[in-house]
């Protein structure tokens, strides 16, 4: 009995906690939407595990949207929302076969998407009548539209569209003409458009646009301002601003006169900016201002002179940096700067000026020789500094100053070694070879090295040796005569000969002396006897 009572209590508690079947529409009852936007209506249910949904209008008109059913809710999406969606929409929810619930929502529409557009036509020229048009784009419902035209705070014209029966969005136009006074130039014409629909909550309900009442004129009083000035330093940021008076704003074109008197087009802007000016930016700048409405043009000019240290514009050699000996050569140097530079053109090795000062230097070298080869420099200098540039002149020529050196000498003994070295100057460097004259008078090439070494000289090595230096511009030859002496006998063979010769000489000399003495005596006495002579001597 206790258990039964407990089960009944649990069932009753469960029944009390189950939610009742309910539904709602979001947003509720009424919604205001702007035509062209997206509108989503949501029908939501609670207390039913598997509800089914149905959408319709009260007048059974087309829905004009897309239905998407989910487990416990359904959506009706109108994208974009339009006039056809201005209805009461009903959502019906079924829970099983017996339970259903239904609610409705009213969709109210309007269109007021943008500010008015003011046009003043024809284009106003001082003293002529003007017509003001105020256009309100895509408005709905137009029968609620109210428009005011004002000049400053003074109301010029007021208009409404209460009798308008438009059933769709339309652009409404308000037109008003009047004769402006001179003091009206520059004042604002304002168009105020209102859409005061009662009981509809949307913003804004009022839109405003303004335009100044201006006369077309100009351009006039056109000037150019230069910052930091018309004589900037090299590297400065130069800014040229063209200022003019014109209505409507003019078209502006910058031009620059070039050295050949042609004109270079730069930019179409009232400001011409050069971040880092150089001497080449110097020149006459022109600002040309054109008013396409009044068909008037005006120009202003400014002369820009960039100051700074010189820069070498050109350093060149004609006809080429590599020439042949005997050609005529000119070296040219030019530099640019303000103030004009002093220019020195010289050969670096000489450190001497090679010409008078001028803006463009030409150094003439007639019939160059190898002595003119070397580095040349151009130095340009003014009070702001100096700059240098170098160029090399390469003079090509045939072999010169060919010389032969012989070590130890050109007269040597048999068995010795002799070294003969040949040197020669030329550009390009000459190729050196050695030849030897044969007994027949012909020359035989014996070496292609500048140094000729003859070892263990023999008598057949004596003769004329010829060194030949050659390149594509010529050749030069030098000759040396090599003499070879015979070799002496060995020392151990010569000593006996020397002793024998000495002994004979020691005996022969006294004998010859005695013989001479006796001969003289015989001549005195009339006869001669060697025996007697010897006796007497004894």
UniProtKB/TrEMBL annotation:
One of its GO terms (cellular component) is plasma membrane. Keywords: Cell adhesion, Cell membrane, Disulfide bond, Glycoprotein, Immunoglobulin domain, Membrane, Repeat, Signal, Transmembrane, Transmembrane helix. The keyword Lipid metabolism does not apply. Pfam families: C2-set, I-set, Ig_3. It comes from the Eukaryota. The keyword tRNA-binding does not apply. Residues 21-108, 219-303, 310-394, 399-481 form the Ig-like domain. GO terms for biological process: cell-cell adhesion. PROSITE patterns: IG_LIKE (PS50835). It is found in: Cell membrane. Residues 1-20 form the signal peptide. InterPro entries: ICAM_VCAM, ICAM_VCAM_N, Ig-like_dom, Ig-like_dom_sf, Ig-like_fold, Ig_C2-set, Ig_I-set, Ig_sub. It is a single-pass type I membrane protein. The chain crosses the membrane at residues 494-518. Its main location: membrane. This is Vascular cell adhesion molecule 1, transcript variant X2. The gene is VCAM1.
């Amino acid at each position: 009995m206790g258990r039964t009572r407990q089960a009944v209590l649990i069932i009753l508690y469960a029944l009390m906690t189950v939610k009742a079947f309910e539904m709602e529409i979001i947003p509720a009852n009424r919604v205001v939407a702007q035509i062209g936007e997206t509108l989503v209506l949501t029908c939501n249910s609670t207390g039913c595990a598997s509800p089914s949904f149905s959408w319709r209008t009260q007048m059974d008109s087309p829905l004009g949207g897309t239905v998407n059913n989910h487990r416990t809710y359904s959506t009706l999406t109108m994208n974009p929302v339009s006039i056809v969606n201005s209805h009461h929409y009903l959502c019906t929810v079924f829970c099983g076969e017996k339970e259903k619930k239904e609610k409705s929502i009213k969709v109210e529409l309007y269109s007021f998407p943008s500010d008015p557009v003011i046009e003043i036509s024809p284009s106003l020229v001082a003293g002529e009548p003007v017509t003001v048009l105020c256009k309100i784009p895509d408005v709905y419902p137009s029968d609620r539209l109210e428009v005011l035209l004002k000049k400053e705070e003074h109301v010029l014209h007021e208009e409404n569209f209460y009798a308008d029966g438009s059933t769709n969005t339309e652009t409404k136009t308000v037109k008003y003409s009047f004769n402006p006074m001179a003091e009206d130039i520059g004042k604002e014409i304002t168009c105020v458009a209102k859409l005061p629909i009662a009981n509809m909550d949307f913003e804004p309900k009022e839109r405003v646009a303004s335009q100044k009442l201006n006369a077309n004129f100009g351009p006039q009083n056109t000037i150019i301002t230069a910052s930091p000035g018309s004589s900037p330093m090299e590297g400065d940021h130069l800014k040229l601003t063209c200022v003019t008076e014109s209505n409507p704003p003019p078209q502006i074109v910058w031009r620059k006169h070039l050295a050949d008197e042609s004109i270079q087009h730069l930019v179409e802007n009232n400001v011409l900016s050069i971040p880092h000016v150089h001497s080449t930016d110097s020149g006459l700048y022109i600002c040309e201002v054109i008013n396409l409405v009044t068909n008037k043009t005006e120009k202003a000019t400014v002369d820009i002179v960039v100051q700074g240290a010189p820069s070498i514009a050109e350093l060149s050699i004609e006809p080429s940096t590599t020439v042949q000996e005997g050609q005529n050569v000119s070296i040219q140097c030019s530099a640019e700067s303000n103030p004009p530079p002093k220019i020195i053109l010289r050969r670096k090795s000489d450190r001497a000026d090679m010409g008078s000062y001028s803006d463009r230097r030409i150094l003439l070298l007639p019939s160059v020789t190898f002595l003119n080869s070397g580095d040349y420099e151009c130095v340009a200098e003014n009070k702001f500094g100096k700059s240098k540039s170098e160029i090399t002149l390469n003079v090509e020529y045939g072999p010169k100053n060919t010389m032969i050196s012989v070590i130890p000498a050109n007269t040597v003994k048999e068995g010795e070694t002799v070294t003969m070295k040949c040197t020669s100057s030329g550009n390009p460097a000459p190729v050196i070879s050695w030849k030897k004259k044969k007994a027949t008078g012909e020359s035989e090439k014996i070496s292609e090295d500048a140094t000729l070494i003859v070892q263990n000289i023999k008598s057949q090595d004596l003769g004329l040796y010829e060194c030949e230096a050659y390149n594509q511009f010529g050749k030069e030859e030098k000759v040396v005569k090599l003499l070879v002496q015979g070799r002496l006998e060995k020392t151990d063979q010569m000593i006996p000969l020397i002793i024998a010769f000495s002994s004979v000489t020691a005996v022969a000399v006294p004998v010859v002396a005695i013989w001479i003495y006796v001969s003289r005596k015989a001549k005195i006495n009339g006869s001669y006897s060697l025996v007697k002579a010897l006796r007497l001597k004894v």
